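Re: beginner question about structure tokens

> Can someone show what the tokenized structure looks like for a real chain? I only ever see the sequence side.

Sure, here's an example I had lying around. Input first:
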Amino acid sequence: IVAACIKVAKAEGAWVYRTPPSGRSRGGIPDLILCHHGQFVGVEVKRPRVGRLTMRQKLTMEDIERAGGTVAVVTSPEELRSCLAHTLGATSSAPSDSRSSDDGCRCGETR
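And the corresponding structure tokens:
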């Protein structure tokens, strides 16, 4: 899922950094760090139905939002594409100014 999300993020014009797997970096850091249209976005990729955020991940995501960044928890590349469009309002394939959650997007609000 992570590799497919990286492809989507790059296709949408984002700069992407994949954090090292657990044990090789500080815990709680999102799986993907993006810069998309000048906005910092931390993306945590979870397996559908079974993936859960740890307390450390939740706290880190709160810190990112408090600092003015955006965070997203996604379970598919399609969710990431939707969140980039929803949160940032400008992608190559789905521009949108709406913050409606009809599409299942679970991204944080841009601050």
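Each token stands for a local structural state, so reading them left to right follows the chain. Strands lie at 15-18, 32-36, 39-45, 70-74.
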